[in-house]
């Protein structure tokens, strides 16, 4: 629920009042999250999220896009609730796997 609320706040903060997110608003959302992405890559990501090709992303499309991606670099701080659970719940291994880090050499089991 915490993550959903963060996504809703982000979507609402970036899109203005029309409940639709265009490309410029998508870029604004990335900036709010601290994600540094070249414009060409941002446009590619926006197109992947815009399932019907209408040039705007609805909140459900935005959630679907985020849920099917590993957390972009920089966005982890945005979605972090301040509680360090990485060692206790296996999150460290999941995040490392998503970013290509070999945890077998960095973690002690």
| Portion of residues within helices | 55-70%
The global form is globular
Q: Gap between N and C termini, in Å?
A: 30 Å
Look at the helices and sheets and give the structural class.
Answer: mainly alpha
User: How many H/I helices?
Assistant: 7
Low-confidence stretches: 102-109
Q: Compute the number of strand runs.
A: 0
Radius of gyration: 15 Å
**Major β-sheet, in short?**
none
Strand content: under 5%
Mean pLDDT: 74
Summarize the structure.
The protein is mostly helical. 58% of the residues lie in helices and 0% in strands.
Plain-language structure description:
This protein is mostly helical and 109 residues long. Helix content is 58%, strand content 0%. The chain is built from seven helices and no strands. It has helices at 2-15, 23-33, 39-49, 59-67, 75-79, 86-89, 91-99. Helix 1 packs across helix 2. The radius of gyration is 15 Å and the shape is globular. The two termini are 30 Å apart. The relative contact order is 0.13. The model is unreliable at 102-109 (pLDDT under 50).
Features:
109 residues; disordered C terminus; mainly alpha; 7 helices; globular
Architecture blueprint of SSEs:
Layout: H1 2-15, H2 23-33, H3 39-49, H4 59-67, H5 75-79, H6 86-89, H7 91-99
Helix pairs in contact: 1-2
